[in-house]
Amino acid sequence: MGVSCLQRKPFVREDCSLEVCSLFTVSDSCFRGEAEDASGSSLKSQVEAAEVFSDAEVIQGLVPDERDLIKGSLIDWSDHQACQLILTTGGTGFAPRDVTPEATKAVIEKEASSLSCVMLMESLKVTPLAALSRSVCGIRGRTLIVNLPGSKKGAQECLSFLLPVISHAVDLLQDHACEVKALHQKMQQSDSMDGRPCHPKVQRQKSLVDETQIALRPRESDYPMVSVDEALKTVLQYANQGGTHRRNFKDALGFVLAEDVFSQEPLPPFPASIKDGYAVIVADGTGRRRVLGDSTAGVHSLCEVLPGCCVRVSTGAVVPPGANAVVQVEDTALLKDADSGRAELEVMIMKAPVLNQDIRPIGSDIQQNEKVLSAGMCLGPSEIGLLATVGVTQVLCYTKPTVGVMSTGNELVEPGQKLSRGKIRDSNRSTLLACLREQGIPTVDLGIARDNADALLSQILEALDQVDVIVTSGGVSMGEKDLVKDVLRIDLNAMIRFARVFMKPGKPTTFTTLSHNGKSKLFFGLPGNPVSALVTCNLYVLPAIRKMSGFAKFQSTVIKAKLASAITLDPRPEYHRCILSWGEDGLALAESTGCNQMSSRLLSVRSSNALLMLPPKTDEQQVLTAGQMVDAMVLGTVI
Questions:
Q1: Of 131, 138, 84, which Cα lies nearest the Cα of 111?
Q2: Mean pLDDT for the chain?
Q3: SS3 string of 443-485?
Q4: Tens-place pLDDT, residues 324-343
Q5: Interatomic CA distance for residues 530 and 517, integer angstroms
Q6: Cα-based distances in Å from 133 to 69, 115, 227
Q7: E-state strands within 532-587
Q8: Largest alpha-carbon pair distance within the chain?
């Protein structure tokens, strides 16, 4: 049986993307040290204990009941400290020095009066004195500001009334499209017996991973080291080709054909003139010809060429019956016209034609039922044009897998956010999504997952419902917060096929297979360093996706390139970023993007278009000299 909407709790997102929450007390006596800040302390404890704030940094402040000081603090914390949520307590009543609402109104750009209304309505159920509160809620930039009462009990109660909506409010303000869309989808999927929308509470998945025993974590990896070739072979072993589907040819660019394509008619479907000129009979040779009419492209002509006559034709037009050659206009001369030059009556053929001169016979380009495209071909612009030519508008293609990209890390914030202490902007997700989209791969932005086993599990499970392949960055090394492998293995019963690769950069690269709702899924755990993530995406993810999409050739192109300068080798095989150019000798010249090839240095790939595949250092060879030829893996399109 269904559950009445009236019995359901409001929807609460239990994993808020809130990064920084600031709360400050407005009180003369507390500021002077004459009274204890009980409200501020209790609010801090409440915030830190609430699951929606589980990963947020909480900072506190204290200001007197001075309007300008309150305004200054609100502006500083929203504009310069990158606080996403500011909670104030105190100064909201009727006393002469209660000016917090006035200071708040002076700095906010939009009011959020519904939040104030929620606090008032719920508080009136507790005490009639709630009617004396003048709390203001509003938005400044991307910061939500909430005035709470000054009493310890009132502040805690009012915050609890807002907890069900704060996380969604923050996501909307920060433009976290992935989280907002996910919540809206869940709301739409909820059923209602009485026809009204209901917002069921979705419980966060509880992970079986024990995060607390940090001292007992492995000091050495449990996974064997594999070579790049072994790793790639393993990936391709499990990257199974997907199904097929029919697509309109206009939407098939970049897809691989799953069947041969045959022409339905010959091309051209009629004898066509190659030149602008006159359709003639070869046996007539040179001399005067009476012009019977004309045949232009796209117009059906009823003229038939008779001996001693001709028909004027244009390029691509039907060669009329009776004619067996076309004489170009340059080999003719006008003898007689009519109607002030609007009609030709007689022309001179000055050069004798030969049989079938300048005529494209029926089917000379494409025969009827001729195979024009083969299964396994990738449809590019020329192939799309060919499909249009032969009239095939629906084609059977291999289905491309949908790939979700997720970043992990407590230190990450969205690119549009201001940085607070200890935070960095998430570049990996944008880079990897762009890399995949450049290849025409359908993608889903899975957002940022916090370094928390419960949050990771919930976000991965939600992603598995949407995508065929998950690509994450970060969380796969040996740190105490690197929980991705444990969540996959313990909670999802995934098979970790490899988790260490003998290469630089990209040693912690992890590849996993698992089953979800009866479907096989691939999971790539890429390192968190930006360059490592991009290199390993090109080495492992793209070949896997190409194979799943039906490509016969799924590995990136490797060419020989000449080193422009000497390079010192590393103990591990290295994928060194470089710029390819071509010299007068026709050989590719590889110029390193710099000696600083640290895996965290994204500038080293800024203009690179290839990866030098350098061998590991040996006693016999520790440096590659300028002019030596090495393998180079091409990235994207080389111009």
A1: 138
A2: 88
A3: EEEEEEECCCHHHHHHHHHHHHCCCCEEEEECCCCCCCCCCHH
A4: 999 999 999 999 999 998 99
A5: 32
A6: 21, 13, 67
A7: 558-563, 567-568, 574-582
A8: 121
What's the angle, vertex CA 626, arms to CA 625 and CA 628, rounded to 5? 75
Least Cα distance to 18 among 87, 74, 104 occurs for 87
- Structure-block tokens of residue 140: 């400044």
CA dihedral of residues 152, 153, 155, 156 (deg, nearest 10): 110
pLDDT recorded at residue 181? 53
Helix (H) or strand (E) holding 153: helix 152-173
Considering the entire predicted model, what is its pTM? 0.68
How far, in Å, CA of 554 to CA of 233, rounded?
12
Closest by CA position to 119, among listed 85, 147, 90, 91: 147
Distance CA 59, CA 423 (A): 15
CA of 526: how far to CAs of 11, 413, 426, 464, 539, in Å? 33, 19, 14, 17, 11
What residue ranges define each of the domains in the chain, with the CATH number in brackets? 20-184 (3.40.980.10), 228-239+401-549 (3.40.980.10), 244-266+365-398 (3.90.105.10), 272-360 (2.170.190.11), 558-634 (2.40.340.10)
Q: Output the CA–CA distances (angstroms, integers) from residue 277 to 230, 338, 348, 349, 487, in the order listed.
A: 66, 19, 12, 10, 76
Structure confidence by residue, pLDDT tens digits, 605-639? 557 899 999 999 999 999 999 999 999 999 976 65
Neighbour count for residue 10 (Cβ, 10 Å): 11
Least confident of 132-136, 217-221, 559-563: 217-221
d(CA 17, CA 8): 24
